Amino acid sequence: MGDHSHGSPDDSGTVAKAGTGTLDKFQDPGLPPHRKRLADTDPHAEKRAERQVALLFIISIIGTLSFFIAYFVLGRPENISEIRVQNAMLGLGTTFAMLGIGIGIVHWAKTLMPDHEISEMRHEITPEADRKDAEEIINQVIEETGIKRRPLIRNTLIGAIALAPIPAIFMFRDLDRTGKNAGEMVEQLRHTMWDTDVRLTRDPSGTPIKASDVQIGSVFHVIPEGLDEAEDVLNEKAKAVVLLMRLDPEKMHISEGREDWHYQGIVAYSKICTHVGCPVALYEQQTHHLLCPCHQSTFDLTQECKVIFGPAGRALPQLPIKVDANGFLVAQSDFHEPVGPSYWERG
To answer: Does the predicted TM-score (pTM) go above 0.85?
Structure first.
């Protein structure tokens, strides 16, 4: 057979020359040539990029100030339109506060900071050498950012970073669980507008409901009579809204002490889910299940709204009801337990 003179690769990726016994390794191509940016060659473009970065940091500052205006100036809104305006300003303010800093830093890095690639040989590390390397890296980073020679960027960045965390501080302050404020909050969550002989009325018309109006399978969204005259209508409604339904009394499993909390199968339960406070508004007539649309917590109406599925940890609070002399449904008292999701005093 003929003798082949072509070289063949070995396991190391090198090629042997025929008849010479020598090896030619692939040459290292090295780093690609560095392409300079416009800001690297044009002083006007560099200055323009610097102003753009500063503008983004200023947008962050404006966003934080917008949050302050919405949080302190608007205060506690009185109606749904004011709530929407406040929420929009809080959300947009926070968004621009964070977005301005993030985009500003990215734009700064892409247009003004050095972008050439560097390759360094690995060497043995000792504590002293390691410390010197860390110092050199820090000095190099400071030099490459140009923060010393760019006061416009430096000052706007300091302002944006200093202001951005302040909204979070105020929001966490309002979650303080100790002292007088926390005690007042617990007391507010523990009581609603329901009281002895307060009529059950339709939401939102405020029309009183007679027992004869409630048929098996029907559902009424209920608010207490006089809600529109409350000092803080939205907060009171958020705690007092109720679902009113009628069941076949033979299908009801009534626990001891609640025998007189319903009227001929008519029952009233808090509409506020015990998971995170979403409105429970879906009623399956055939299964007698109430469903929260947010996280699918399911409550069995025949078992005093016991949780049978989902993340809710407690049954919906029941409102004791009766019928007055005119046939209207009225409350016997307030709820016997706090409504809504769990909090630190309830567990």
So the answer is: no
